[in-house]
Amino acid sequence: YFHNRTPDVATAVAVQSGPSAADRVFSALSENPALIAAGSSVMLAKEADGIRIDLVDTAERPLFDRADGRFTETGLALARATAIALANTEGTLTLEGHTDAFPSLTQGYSNWELSSDRANEARRIFEAAGVAAERIRGVAGLADTRPIIAAQPHLPVNRRVSILVQVEG
């Protein structure tokens, strides 16, 4: 019954349509010269629910001052370059701020506030760089709850801003 069946028109169109919208956005980001130049400060991955871009702090290229929600000049340049790369792509964005596992040095200012400040700093930069405000669907501070390297939650790479790009199709 299922063998030697002629594909219907919808199946034929789906097969011929080529790469998905998510694949096209991923390719554009993978080939972006500014993101490539950032080296290990940018991590790009396809996920089941979209594309994740992590702008990560490194000892060589700190993106944040340790206890500050604002970007350093290096971080600011990378956030702008990422926003410009995303400005003309498809999809909605969710911005997440993260910290390492060291406690905040400022009394009354926890890693929750710090990570939220980082996510909102990224949102402001993205909007100023041309990302339409209505594309941003969420801004969240996740503190140290989702380290990149779970066994080493104090590493600089865990201080980051994550951008989840959700693309239909």
Span of the ends, CA to CA: 30 Å
Q: Output the structural class.
A: alpha+beta
Radius of gyration based on Cα positions: 19 Å
Shape estimate: globular
Q: State the helicity in percent bands.
A: 25-40%
Brief overview:
The chain has helices at 9-16, 21-30, 33-37, 73-87, 111-128; strands spanning 42-47, 50-56, 92-98, 136-141, 160-166. The chain has 169 residues and is α+β, with helices and mostly antiparallel strands. α4 (73-87) packs across α5 (111-128).
Q: How would you characterize the overall build of this protein?
A:
A hairpin with a 2-residue loop joins strand 1 (42-47) and strand 2 (50-56). Strands 1-2-5-3-4 form a five-stranded mixed beta sheet. Helix content is 33%, strand content 20%. By secondary structure, it is of the alpha+beta class. It has helices spanning 9-16, 21-30, 33-37, 73-87, 111-128; strands at 42-47, 50-56, 92-98, 136-141, 160-166. It is globular, with a radius of gyration of 19 Å. Helix 4 packs across helix 5 (111-128).
Keywords:
169 residues; 5 helices; alpha+beta; 5-stranded mixed β-sheet
How would you summarize the topology of this molecule?
Blueprint: H1 9-16, H2 21-30, H3 33-37, E1 42-47, E2 50-56, H4 73-87, E3 92-98, H5 111-128, E4 136-141, E5 160-166
Parallel strand pairs: 3-4
Antiparallel strand pairs: 1-2, 2-5, 3-5
Helix pairs in contact: 4-5
